[in-house]
Amino acid sequence: xxxxxxxxxxxxxxxxxxxxxxxxxxxxxxxxxxxxxxxxxxxxxxxxxxxxxxxxxxxxxxxxxxxxxxxxxxxxxxxxxxxxxxxxxxxxxxxxxxxxxxxxxxxxxxxxxxxxxxxxxxxxxxxxxxxxxxxxxxxxxxxxxxxxxxxxxxxxxxxxxxxxxxxxxxxxxxxxxxxxxxxxxxxxxxxxxxxxxxxxxxxxxxxxxxxxxxxxxxxxxxxxxxxxxxxxxxxxxxxxxxxxxxxxxxxxxxxxxxxxxxxxxxxxxxxxxxxxxxxxxxxxxxxxxxxxxxxxxxxxxxxxxxx
Amino acid sequence: xxxxxxxxxxxxxxxxxxxxxxxxxxxxxxxxxxxxxxxxxxxxxxxxxxxxxxxxxxxxxxxxxxxxxxxxxxxxxxxxxxxxxxxxxxxxxxxxxxxxxxxxxxxxxxxxxxxxxxxxxxxxxxxxxxxxxxxxxxxxxxxxxxxxxxxxxxxxxxxxxxxxxxxxxxxxxxxxxxxxxxxxxxxxxxxxxxxxxxxxxxxxxxxxxxxxxxxxxxxxxxxxxxxxxxxxxxxxxxxxxxxxxxxxxxxxxxxxxxx
Lengths: 307, 259
Prior knowledge:
A: mainly alpha, 4 strands, B: 61% helix
């Protein structure tokens, strides 16, 4: 029904489908909602300078910014938030605002402003993925945009320099990571058993920090202490982005006790979900999602495995 | 402030009780103060009243320049000066008054998230409407902002402030938005708040927290301020539980104030 959709984003590295935070958010949401989108990396093209990344092209229209792209996909009936209650939808908005205000400045600082990280990791990576002569322009353009964003939003430029706001943004970011960790608890995803747009946002923001080999980052060491956030990222990578499995497969069956407990919980929740889905189908709401339906097959597979 | 200085200040703050002579500074109420500053100031006043801490409100034309961070409002307590709701909440906590002690970790995470939602959406929308919308900027914001000063200083200051705010809007990606989109964002934010509040008296059931103070400050100011169009107030009025929330907080905490 829809024209072929194309997503322009930065390329893959460090074990992630994309190193760019915003591109990663959109790619994760695309996988969660089952949308048919071809991913076109802008590496080594002139689009690194001219295009705003990430960008979704569908027919004649081009959509930019992760929030707008997610809204557009929802309108095309690729909706990963279909099962959320109104209150959970409100919570999603609030947590996304928290990520934007508290975590984003510190992430920008870690990758683009911190001298050691920028010189050793970020600039070489982006410069190596841009064609000559853009490799001189693109990284510094991003870096100055990041610096001005941090100063304008967090400090009273030109009164404060970057040194004064550094301490504050890092402590805010650590607090934000702690809050996300409390909210996630021991679950796989933030709302129930299936990932939603909030999971996409958190994954996109946290995964680069988790996986990049940063020379100096107190924030990264703080994140590594929060075990549930790192396993959240690893779980999504394993389930949705591993190369040998094309779609969302059933969770990997380990023989460890903790996973077995989780499985039994999942089985119970799954049967409730099936009942709810049945009701939904019977009452036939306005917008049905196009996501391929793994729920009945999941339940059937899992009911045969517990010991 | 650096982290070390902050820790030092909270140590000193914890040493003394809240004095009677605490004052809150804001720009002149009748002529100068703008929507966003008035909202922040009302939020802080509501928070202090909810804590039961007395504070006198003093209006000064140069309040913005007196503030340590350049933002309104700021309070002068004993020999310390603290500005903005976040640091003020921490300051009062160091003195032993806190509204959010009874919350568990997940609830506290939710509270902080919703406070950021209000800051991210409502405050930014207020700033946008005041300074990036040409009609409002020319008729209301610039004249009011520069009213205590004479020409040519008034022109210079007003345009400087407008330029600063527009730069900030561009940096956060709001520069390209139209007024309609901004109203729609405010609508979504209010919808989220309304759904979170539901039928409870306060956001975290029986007791008000700093989130309630912040939401009250913004919503009440928007509802009672006259702008070039009533669109913004209309959007909020469509959520009846938010209206009754504002009325409840006003009656409970601001009854004796003759406004």
